[in-house]
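Anyone able to model this chain together with flavin mononucleotide?
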Amino acid sequence: MGPDVTPEPAGDDAQARPSRTASAASAGPTTANAFRILLVYATRHGSTVEVADAIAEELRSGGNEVDQRPAAEAPSPAGYDAVVVGGPMIMGWHREAARFVTRHRADLERLPTALFITAASLTETGESDVQGVPIVKDPWLAKAPRDAAKLRYKERYALPQHYLGAVLKKAAPGRPRSVAFFAGSLDLTTMNLFEKAFVLLVIGATPGDGRNWKAIREWGAGLGEVLTA
Ligand SMILES: Cc1cc2nc3c(=O)[nH]c(=O)nc-3n(C[C@H](O)[C@H](O)[C@H](O)COP(=O)(O)O)c2cc1C
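re: yes, here you go
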């Protein structure tokens, strides 16, 4: 199987954590003409919700109004000023995040959009964009291959263009203004046997919480400017 084959996730992708409802997530004062951002997230085991929380916090401290919703329950982006969609790699980008992007691609083409992807592995080959879309790579996640001239299967699988290429296809003709890749969190105790086998044997991931809050917050803090530009 080559790296351009991204299987759809197996099993159910039920949200493992309670969703941040609009009211809980938007608590706090907002101004009538604040820039309104819809922040949509998906998660398999819960850690990406906290990444979304941190990004929402940064956007709010920049004066934006953020409506943070789980992808499965997210409203149409119509009526918002910008959209951020995030989710983990779960043998391909999380199904709910991908579905949201596909379903709303007409709106997303009109609106400034950014994506974030949490993952357990990413191969660093020095690129700063995928198909012209600027990418930001968490240094805790991106790892140089053993031999850049001869990538191993799992290194090819974890190339930014492999992960993101499939997502951009779903978003087309819209193009996100920025895509961030962040190290996620792998808790083997929450995984079934199949999931464990995949993350350990196929992608060679290291269990543990690898989230780099500095990198996440930095991207979130600069995002308002990227989306309003
Ligand atoms: C079944 C499964 C498949 C995964 N597939 C990938 C993958 O293809 N590439 C990758 O880099 N990480 C992969 N991961 C790691 C997750 O992206 C990472 O653990 C993420 O932080 C999980 O986010 P969550 O806690 O919000 O579900 C996988 C994890 C699981 C459980």
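The CA atoms of residues 18 and 46 lie 9 Å apart.
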